Amino acid sequence: MLADPMLPTPYRVTRVIRDTHDVFTLECAPPSASPAFAFAPGQFNMLYHFGVGEVPVSVSGDPGRAEALIHTIRAVGTVTNALQRVRRGDAIGVRGPFGNGWPLASTKGDDVVLVAGGIGLAPLRPVLYRLLAEREHYGKIVLLYGTRSPADILYARELEHWRARFDIDVQLSVDRADANWRGNVGVVTTLFERVKFDPLNTTAFVCGPEVMMRFAIVELERRGVADERIYLSMERNMKCAVGLCGRCQYGPSFVCRHGPVFRHDAVRRLFSAREV
Amino acid sequence: MTGPAVLERAHFQHLLDVLRAGGYRIVGPTVRDAAIVYDEIERVDDLPVGWTDEQAPGRYRLKPGSDRALFGYVVGPHSWKKYLHPPAERLWRATRNGKTFSISAEPTASLKYAFVGVRACELRAIGILDQVMTGGVPADPSYAARRSDAFILAVNCVQAGGTCFCVSMQTGPRAASGFDLALTELIAATEHVFLVETGSERGAEILDQVPHRPASEQEITLARGKIEAAAAQMGRSLDTTGLKELLYRNYEHPRWDEVAQRCLTCANCTMVCPTCFCTTVEDVTDLSGEHAERWRKWDSCFTLDFSHIHGGSVRASGRSRYRHWMVHKLATWFDQFGSSGCVGCGRCIAWCPVGIDITEEARAIRASERLPAGGHDETA
Amino acid sequence: MKQLDEFLAEHSFFRGLPREYLELVAGCATNVRFDAGSFIAREGEDADYFYLIRHGKVALELFVLNKSTHTVETLGPGDILGWSWLVPPYRWRFDARAVELTRAIALDGKCLRGKCESDHDLGYHLLKRFTFVLSQRLEATRLQLMDIFGAAAS
């Protein structure tokens, strides 16, 4: 933990990847003589652009390859638009990691179903890296990924890699496409009927827009996966990320401290309520 | 601790001087802009001598009191969070260095405040803020520093305000603990004294330097009686039985729609509430773009910005924002910090421009609680 | 009851339904009214009823973050509201809100489900009719998804 959790540390950007028209990935390195960045899949950092501001962004790299700290970011506001203009060699501020992570330890021995919508794949990618690094500890591994259109697919090359493996089931669908697309068209929930997993021994990690998570959970429950085996990642406004500014409250929880990963049975009432 | 003492009105200035000599910056009530606010003071005359206040939903007026009491009023729009958890605070400064930048944290200011005139409800509010700001990990270092150095001169209320309900919240009117010294003002035709209770070593040291004498049984009884009279006079009450569960059961109660029609989401309640702690962070640069600063500032859950995430606010409707504030204050605060967030000071009631009364809202929900809707409105 | 009987018989949805089934369905029917702005159904709640709208307008809505609600479709007099009662887990998949004062006939789906289980002929009659309504909605939704008025289409 940092000496002062409100102080960003400058990290040097080593690589910029343009993923889609509004999504980009920054890889960065810590200041020399600093230890490599350690994090658990599901945790996030506050990324600072000098003079502009900070945003919470999930870490989306491989926890086992600590030489690069990787974040995939969608340009939707002032700070993320400024971060989109960052170039190799520039510095960005990093504070973190904050929050809890996906409960990988307790899923050993289970089938694992990852349901990702849009940029929701970014916080789940570290999970996939870890699962594949310890493949023998898990049963089936299923990735269901839905996105708006073929042009919005993230990590396309890696997805092809994973799809080519025989020990992981990757299904992809887009909401709309033109004739050049040979893949599935339909919302991500339509992918459930294509995959097999053992609902009694499945843990599901769901990440994406709230409405998508709602419907994905309905499908999981329809397949017989119990509430306490479904985890979701919540997003709320954040400024301090350490539980003091009060903004990320979700019922009695602080998303920055008790989340962003929540077990569905623990937040069921809140999750189905509006504007809480 | 020793038994209660008595301090003469004539020696009150001496008390202030002793505090200043001890390195304290004295903050106390004073009249400004037709209200009694908290500000730095030096002399007894800076206090609202002879003033009293009239408070009701959406109403606050000062008027001359019937005597020359120093503390003949209750609480105004300011609370001690103004000093413990300041409205604006710089967290760090940064300077560009070519492609990178360097940051230096703001040194924790060593400010020793002496708070004069802290009411029992406010003492509890400070205790609540202690839990919020330093009860978790990480703690807020600047709050911790200001708090540990603060000298608290409490004052027991001998009259209740029109919007007060500290008795319901079990926070007053008597200051039971958490102070360095606590005063009860006793004013009669021929005499004007203060009963003084010592609450700490620090308090005893200060009192030792000021002329005082042991209190008589009569004076102790008189003081107790006045405080009990204040307790019987409360302007409002709030039934706290099962209040948390009541609110948790009633997220969809129609009362929220009703109050939403009145609430302006002006955020006054959060500004005056002594336990509201929410803040925002502002990153700014100078014109050259070479120097940046990060500031922490008070904010309110009533703003749309407060719950804003990529393109929308989670709590877009005024209804949801009022509900969030009230349910947080009276219910989820328990789950987060182990107590109610409300101390019954009544400020939110007085300073709401449309006079929304939190005790009335709670009462309305309790009185007309609906079980989960089952059927339809059938017609013939 | 007789009044509801006759009204149901006239409605295109129930046209051709054998008399004894019409009476049975009417036995599970009540006349209901919803004030403007009130919710007829909320996403996630048990779907025990479906409705035959007689008067007014109902909006099918999905609660999304950026706007408070997203209106998927509106239904009016003569339309059938609700198929979730037929499909497990029998929970509403969207919100239904009366945009104007709405009067409808509420049909007890929970009760009818039971009756369909014991009388498959009734089940077939109802399912035929619902399949037609669902296919119409699906075609319409697909067309809606295509964003035919958007810039790309022209």
Main sheet makeup of chain A: 7 strands, mixed
Number of domains of chain A: 2
Rough outline of chain B = globular
Query: Going across the major beta sheet of chain B, what is the strand order?
Result: 3-2-8-9-10-11-1-12
Number of strands of chain B: 16
User: What's the alpha carbon Rg of chain A, rounded to whole Å?
Assistant: 18 Å
Would you kindly provide a written description of the structure presented here, covering whatever features stand out?
- The complex is a heterotrimer of chains A (276), B (380) and C (154).
- Chain A is 20% helix and 30% strand.
- By secondary structure, chain A is α/β, with parallel strands linked by helices.
- Chain A folds into two domains: 9-98, Translation factors (Elongation Factor Tu (Ef-tu), domain 3, Beta Barrel), CATH 2.40.30.10; 105-233, 3-Layer(aba) Sandwich (Rossmann fold), CATH 3.40.50.
- Chain A is globular.
- The mean pLDDT of chain A is 94.
- Chain B has 380 residues and is an alpha+beta fold.
- Chain B folds into two domains: 5-232, no CATH class; 243-367, no CATH class.
- Helices cover 31% and strands 24% of the residues of chain B.
- Chain B contains 13 helices and 16 strands.
- An eight-stranded mixed sheet of chain B has the order 3-2-8-9-10-11-1-12, with helices on both faces. In chain B, strands 7-6-14-13 form a four-stranded antiparallel sheet, with no helix packed on it.
- In chain B, helix 8 (243-249) packs across helix 11.
- The longest helix of chain B is centred in the last third of the chain and has 20 residues, at 318-337.
- Chain B is globular.
- Chain B starts with a strand and ends in a 13-residue tail after the last helix.
- Chain C is globular, with a radius of gyration of 16 Å.
- Chain C contains four helices and eight strands; from the N terminus they run H-H-E-E-E-E-E-E-E-E-H-H.
- With 154 residues, chain C is of the alpha+beta class.
- In chain C, helix 1 packs across helix 2.
- A four-stranded antiparallel sheet of chain C has the order 1-8-3-6. A four-stranded antiparallel sheet of chain C has the order 2-7-4-5, with no helix packed on it.
- In chain C, strand 4 and strand 5 form a beta hairpin.
- Chain C has a single domain, classed as Jelly Rolls (Sandwich), CATH 2.60.120.10.
- Chain C starts with a helix and ends in a 9-residue tail after the last helix.
- The model of chain C has no long low-confidence stretch (mean pLDDT 87).
- Classes of the chains: A alpha/beta (276), B alpha+beta (380), C alpha+beta (154).
- Chains in contact: A-B, A-C, B-C.
- At the B-C interface, loops of B face strand 1 of C.
